[in-house]
Design goal:
8% of the residues lie in helices and 40% in strands. By secondary structure, the chain is mostly beta strands.
């Protein structure tokens, strides 16, 4: 999604053809040159240690710079680049579910229709199952977060940020203690067999900034 294109068909052609212009051209003078520069990121686990054979919830917390947005995980249009957290496979640690927040429809100055975006504080959740055979110790999932940032006038090229996710595993009979309950107490994990939710839930205009 690039801000100087007001026609959706031309924009779709540009993205499909791989027409990427250096981010410096699109960024405002003195502004960020990469979409990942818009993001401050932290990860938290729901347990201090995970008993081997148990599951743990992970919160990947994004803080998006004021005045900027990133496309939601389910963009309004098929050719837009959505936020996506990808996790590399690792023996003994299996990502069972990933939960993205709903986007917010916002009218941006360069687009002909409202776009589904994230702004401010955004939390992506993972549920990770540990294998009962894991030895106690420190483990790390290797993840990558892809985002594309926009303000009301322009968009930056999409880019990806490495996200290391540390997980501390204990004995299978370890009595784990919950932590960061403010992040994890109200997670509503969807039924894996259910239909996916609508891509957006609320509508806002740029006047809400």
């Amino acid at each position: 999604m690039f801000g100087t294109f007001r026609n959706s068909r031309l924009l779709a052609f540009a993205l499909t053809a791989g027409f990427l212009v250096p981010a410096l051209v699109w960024a405002q003078v003195g502004g960020p040159r990469s979409s990942t520069e818009l993001i401050d990121l932290a990860t938290h686990t729901s347990l201090d240690q995970v008993p081997a054979g148990s599951s743990v919830d992970i919160a990947v917390v994004l803080e998006i710079q004021p005045g900027w947005k990133v496309n939601s995980n389910r963009p309004t249009l098929d050719f837009l680049i959505g936020t996506e957290l990808s996790v590399a496979a690792q023996d003994g640690l299996v990502v069972e579910q990933t939960l993205y927040p709903e986007g917010k429809l916002q009218e941006l100055g360069f687009a002909d229709e409202p776009l589904s975006v994230y702004e401010g504080r955004v939390v992506i959740y993972l549920r990770v199952q540990t294998d009962a055979s894991l030895a106690p110790g420190d483990y790390e999932l290797s993840a990558s977060l892809r985002v594309q940032g926009c303000d009301d006038n322009v968009c930056l090229a999409p880019s990806s940020l490495a996200v290391p996710i540390p997980i501390q595993v204990g004995d299978s009979d370890f009595q784990a203690s919950p932590q960061h309950e403010e992040l994890f107490s109200e997670i509503d994990w969807p039924d894996a067999s259910a239909e996916p939710p609508p891509p957006v839930a609320t509508v806002a205009t740029t006047d809400d900034h």
